[in-house]
């Protein structure tokens, strides 16, 4: 089991370090955790893009890239993620691990320092961002929001989340909306930046060979100028245990040749305890989360009702989404069979072969995450957002113990909330 250490560097500023010598690179991350809100989503999404354009010491991307090249070709990238109803705003970076550089070289301190420089000393006059950077990245953000309609599956899932979770923060896109982005001004963005620096909880992450004391010292020095304020707690995700009424149905028509059927389920509330998470992880793999799932083998392969059919879980929100590509004439047949496969799970109609195949798939995926730095960072960010600390190995061991009866109990909590279809204009 990899050594995991967590230290509080200041009120609301937490460092989690994973000590390992298995990678040739080390990964660093800095994430601000903001509640997902309509009025700030696009501002937050734009911030890391503008910050990455330059610093006071390296005022443009060319000089910043040169500084990264000096660190044996390291990289720092802005990243926006949505975890439940938490908007995760920040950066992650990959650098050659100190164990693989010439004797006497120390990359960790310089890499952490560059993170601090990007976040605390952005290019500009110290009172505002460079206007050209704001306008350029604002245009890029608007283009990205507009382009989401080009991926019809992702568009359909976003529409389902927004319509199903009307009045809930979970329905808000991590990038906000085009209208919000259009309204951004340089002054508003800088004000949002200062507020985030002073109030948002901060999650610092390190994975590499350096010992924890050295990692802590590097981050403390890099972020010594961070405002010493009393930060907000990590935002909570509010879960809704069951649908509030009858199944709601929504539909759009577009010039498409393949329909999209997406279905949103409530799964009995948000889950954080390891035992419940293990049961739903395994249940999702049996139902639609793997290539040996009931949806794949029956709805797609056996009955040929869908081009694809899968399910995914937002565990801390307590939502399961089923998504499929369907011929327009098969919408109702596909929906009926998707629900029939869920009913089979609720009745315990799961063969020993299905159970063990899914168990191997989920356990194998968790254990393989230990060999992929990006997936490992994502795993531990999820744990931080949910306030839990069980390791991938511990979760895998818990999944090994899940029984059929426990799966049936979990499946019976699942209720259909909303259905969204994307149809052809003549459908």
Radius of gyration: 23 Å
Computed structural class: alpha+beta
SSE order: EEEHHEEHHHHHEHEEHHEEHHHHHE
Spatially, the strands of the biggest sheet line up as 1-2-6-3-5-4
Number of strands: 11
Kindly list the characteristics that best describe this protein:
427 residues, 6-stranded mixed β-sheet, single chain
What does this structure look like?
The strands form two sheets. The chain has a six-stranded mixed sheet, with helices on both faces. Helices cover 43% and strands 22% of the residues. Helix 1 crosses helix 4, helix 9 (274-287) packs across helix 12 and helix 12 runs antiparallel to helix 14 (392-400). With 427 residues, it is α+β, with helices and mostly antiparallel strands. The protein is built from 15 helices and eleven strands.
Entry summary:
The protein is α+β, with helices and mostly antiparallel strands and 427 residues long. 43% of the residues lie in helices and 22% in strands. Helix 1 packs across helix 4 and helix 9 crosses helix 15.
List the helices and strands and how they pair.
Elements: E1 4-10, E2 13-19, E3 25-35, H1 41-51, H2 61-70, E4 75-83, E5 86-96, H3 107-120, H4 131-147, H5 152-164, H6 178-182, H7 186-199, E6 202-208, H8 212-222, E7 248-254, E8 259-266, H9 274-287, H10 294-302, E9 308-314, E10 319-326, H11 331-346, H12 352-368, H13 373-386, H14 392-400, H15 404-411, E11 415-424
Parallel strand pairs: 2-6, 7-11
Antiparallel strand pairs: 1-2, 3-5, 3-6, 4-5, 8-10, 8-11, 9-10
């Amino acid at each position: 089991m990899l050594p995991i250490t967590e230290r509080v560097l200041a009120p609301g500023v937490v460092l989690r370090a994973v000590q390992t010598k298995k990678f040739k690179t080390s990964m660093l991350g800095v994430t601000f955790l903001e509640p997902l809100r309509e009025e700030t989503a696009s501002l937050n999404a734009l911030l890391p893009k503008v910050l990455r354009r330059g610093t006071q010491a390296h005022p443009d991307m060319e000089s910043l890239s040169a500084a990264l090249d000096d660190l044996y070709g390291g990289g720092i990238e802005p990243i926006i993620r949505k975890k439940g109803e938490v908007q995760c705003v920040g950066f992650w970076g990959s650098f050659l691990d100190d164990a693989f550089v010439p004797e006497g070289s120390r990359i960790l301190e310089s890499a952490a320092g560059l993170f601090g420089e990007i976040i605390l000393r952005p290019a500009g006059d110290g009172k505002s961002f460079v206007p050209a950077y704001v306008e350029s990245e604002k245009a890029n953000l608007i283009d990205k929001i507009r382009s989401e309609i080009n991926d019809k599956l992702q568009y359909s899932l976003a529409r389902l989340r927004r319509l199903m979770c009307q009045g809930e923060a979970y329905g808000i896109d991590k990038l906000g909306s085009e209208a919000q982005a259009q309204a951004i001004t340089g002054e508003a963005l800088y004000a949002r930046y200062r507020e985030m620096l002073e109030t948002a909880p901060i999650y610092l992450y390190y994975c590499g060979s350096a010992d924890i004391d050295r990692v802590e010292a590097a981050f403390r020095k890099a972020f010594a100028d961070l405002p010493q304020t009393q930060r907000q707690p990590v935002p909570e995700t509010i879960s809704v245990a069951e649908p509030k009424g009858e199944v709601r149905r929504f539909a759009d028509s577009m010039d498409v040749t393949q329909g999209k059927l997406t279905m949103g389920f409530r799964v009995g509330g948000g889950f954080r305890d390891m035992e419940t998470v293990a049961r739903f992880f395994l249940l999702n793999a049996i139902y639609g989360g793997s290539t040996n799932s009931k949806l794949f083998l029956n709805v797609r392969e056996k009955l040929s009702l869908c081009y694809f059919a899968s399910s995914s879980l937002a565990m801390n929100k307590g939502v399961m989404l089923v998504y499929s590509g369907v011929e327009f004439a098969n919408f109702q047949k596909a929906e009926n069979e998707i629900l029939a496969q869920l009913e089979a799970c609720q009745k315990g109609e799961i063969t020993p072969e299905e159970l063990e195949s899914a168990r191997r798939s989920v356990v194998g995926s968790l254990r393989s995450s230990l060999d992929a730095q990006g997936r490992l960072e994502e795993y531990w960010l999820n744990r931080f957002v949910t306030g839990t600390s069980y390791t991938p190995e511990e979760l895998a061991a818990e999944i090994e113990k899940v029984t059929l009866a426990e799966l049936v109990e979990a499946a019976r909590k699942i209720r259909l909330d909303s259905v969204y279809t994307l149809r052809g204009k003549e459908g």
